[in-house]
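Hi W.,

Here's what went into the run:
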Amino acid sequence: MYGLGIAKGMIVTFKHLFRKPFTVQYPEEVVPRGSRFRGYEFTWYEDRCTGCASCAKYCPLGTINIVTHPEGDPKQGMDYAIDIFDIDTGRCMFCGLCVEACPYEAIQAGGPLDDATYDFESLYRDKHKLTEMAQEHLHGHDFTYPNGKQAPQPDEKPLHIGLPVERDRTR
Amino acid sequence: MTTQLDVEKLSKQIQQQFPDAVQDAQGDYILLKSDYLADVARYCHDTPALALHFLSSVTGVDYIDYFELVYHLVSFEHNHSIVLKTRAYGREDPHVPSLTGIWQGATLQEREVYDLMGIRFTGHPYLKRIFLWDTFQGHPHRKDFTGA
Amino acid sequence: MVKTNGDAKLTLKTEEVMVNIGPQHPSTHGVFRMRVTFDGEVVTELEPIFGYLHRGSEKLAEERTYTQVITLTDRLDYLASMSNNLAYVLAAEKLAGIQPPERAMYIRVIMAELMRIASHCMGLGFFINDLGALATPLMYMFREREKILDLFELVCGARITFSYMRIGGVSGDLPEEFMPALVKFINEMPGYIDEYEALLRENEILISRTKDIAILTAEKAINASVTGPMLRASGVPWDLRKSDPYEVYDRFDFDIPVGSTGDTYDRFLVRLEEMRESVLIVKQAMEQIPSGPFRALAPALIHPPVGEAYAHVEAPKGELGFYLVSDNSIAPYRCKIRAPSFINLTVLRDLIIGWKLADLVVIFGSFDINMGEVDR
Amino acid sequence: MDWFYELWPKLGEAFRGWLESALPDSIEGWVIYLVLGLLSMLVIVNLPIVGVMAMIYMERRLLGRFQNRLGPNRVGPFGILQPVADAIKIMTKEDIVPNGVDRIVFNIAPIVMLTPILLMFAVIPYGGDTFLTNLNVGILFIVAITAVDTIAIFMAGWSSNNKYALFGAMRAVAQLVSYEIPLLIAILGVVVITGTMNLNEIVAHQSSLPLILFQPLGFVIFFVAISAELNRSPFDLLEADSEIIAGFHTEYSGMKFGMFQLAEFAALMGYSAVIATLYLSGWEGPGLPGYLWLFVKVFFIFGIFVWTRATLPRLRIDQVMALAWKFLLPLSFLNVAITAVEVVVWENGLPEWLIPVNIVIGAGLVAIMHRGLNFQGQTRQVVPSGPERLAAINRPVGGGTE
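Here's what came out:
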């Protein structure tokens, strides 16, 4: 009879009236992100980076700009000092290829959602800004990298071969 | 599993119908002379043993010396497929016959190839740019395209 | 105005109105434009106009390495990125002769089938929305899609642009928490599909709006290169998962839903049934999945030998194919995408002419196209 | 507690007494009458505006819950101030008059739309003694005055110089005029039973049992027809968002758009009150005072409107017309005929055992009549798409001279 199908549908919607809403209210309640979440907060750890520029080569958009020069005593193992390491997050599409490319897991994805800014300028992150963000992350997460590994304490030696690089954290 | 038609056998079959239509037959494709393309396509479509009623895709490839047109044909009845190829020479006005009369599915795809590769399909009912605007100069998928 | 014809029969002659439906219109599913001529409410002429979202993906692919092209395929049909990834990596593997390990193939199948459910959720939801149902079924379907996206986020870290598959496998193994979440979802999903059916399948208004509307005959569908649910709604049991099995689809037991008449209602039902079949495939894949490596040992920059390869998958919208030509460099010489949404639009004009304005949006909705894929 | 039940008449009396004592004796009686009349009009005009705010809030929240989400909950506690925010937004928006519109008609249309709707609230009885005017042709007045809205919608659509608006206007003319007829004839059933068009007397007639029990078929027809009149789903073709953007008010913005929205919701509220008055014994009810009972009923009916809106897809214009002319119109005639027979046979009021009989007759008639609609599609002649279908559609219509 005409109307039975409509009545069936009406019952379905009526049942939903008494269900708990599926949506959550964002600022009060944040859905937990997965551990592999590729978010805005690209963290780059200078203490792990050797300056090989694999990430820059892998980036499909060329958002990573890296300039190095050889440095250090050849007897203790040659190293590259990183002069420039910039990520233009404004152009980044968060494909995660750079994360996969890095042999030392120096660049890692992850982070919160609330990283919106008002201008493109602040999305261009240079070495200092990235180090700042990385330190902020490490201090907030008990010196653990986003991938779950333990980071060196501030007084410890960096992980990569060679001498510790002189860091300019004051900017 | 879709089987590849035996290229050797099919090319002989085509040779019988249309002498010197087949230029080359190797791998999984048959390279045809562009003059015979429409006839051979019609033959592939109408022969009950082939029954290639489905034109999967039309592709243009720019090899600088020539343009290659690739037609993927599939038969749903016999579940076999064949790749037909043909070449269009010249950079100024390369052209091949249109297959829209045989497969309606070729209309939009040929328009796309015309738009992006600049290959003219003679006999196409509505050959017009499809993605780019009508006043656009050049054909961006050509290898020598340097920007508008 | 009533005027008398030569043979003295009265005809009602009205002035025709030309309306541009799109590029900004609630029912064009993106930036698509139809230049439509109406006689009253009846469509007498229609010309689809493309290109508002043309980004030249195929040209961009020629300047990127084989791995980097994966990120471009995410943006083709952005509601079914996993299927696009799959089609591309299959083509690249065929070109380079790389065999992915078994576990990777199962993971890919699970992802592709989950993606099909999500894509059909969106397709059906917006189709019902075009019918005027004020987003209620759409919201329900969004809810399930969100759950699938949560699963994808677990495995690859992104919700829309996954870039999960790699040439020779996938970028990461399934995390520990994935399988329990998947089991929970797969057990819930049939109940949700029952809900959609109760809400929509027998709804008289929906039936009266879709049944016998815009019939696409099987011959016409094949001749016009229509693929996917649209083709199967016309009664052609052509599904690449069965007729040309890729990956491990030949190990699963599932049906291909086929329509009887090829009208809009059949296209709706075929998608609804396909969601059930996808749930079934995922269930079997979960039971069969072996342990082992998730990625073949392939170099980071592959140099495939000179040649060409065409690989196709049954994407939610139809047959998605990648035709790659290699010149033994790190980037493809030519990357052609056979986009199902685009080619399905061949029959748009023929299907819509003669129907009313209200049918126009419904028929167009039943195509379930995606502008990212149409314009590429 | 007497003042609680008779709040508005008592308030009026008290105010009148105060006015008489406060004003000097030289002021004549008609001035007081005028002041009182203006004041009560002010109350009546503001009633739909406040009610519409509550309804918009309720609709959005309910739709949210039907769709498994929360709905607006940011402005004020539970989002209760959302309609206020909406109103402020809409009033401060730029009032755009596009090029090429018929300026006068374009500007008048919202006023023509809203005024009749506000007039409608004058005759609705809110309680035993609470009404602005006790018209003896009350229901006729309501139907007549709200029919003006058709013209307003057509004015808006025609003057907008927009093809979508034109589509909306044309649909409005076809749809609204068609549904007036079954609507009126369904009301006739009530009038036949009660023997009056005065809304107060209709309510008084239902003091024992609501009329929906004796008029189930009439109620269904009235409800469907009123859904179409008010552009509610599934008959919201005039502003079908997926087809013609927003229909007749596509080009309107700012407060002019707000007036259309206001008129639409006020009409919904007014007609919900009419449904309550005609079929659900109006303000009558135990416990609560009449004006509160009426609003409970109004919001209950409104909730059903929201429910249908949340569930149902939209019909096509020819199906909507078919429903009116092939289904509702014959049904409404049958309804009047059956009611008339019943009233003639049982002169001194209808017996209660007629209630199940009426329901069975109504269901049976619906089951028989719906076959004529051929909505299921199986019996309809199948026409292929494309040029063949166009030829089939363009075949000559009309009698000709054979």
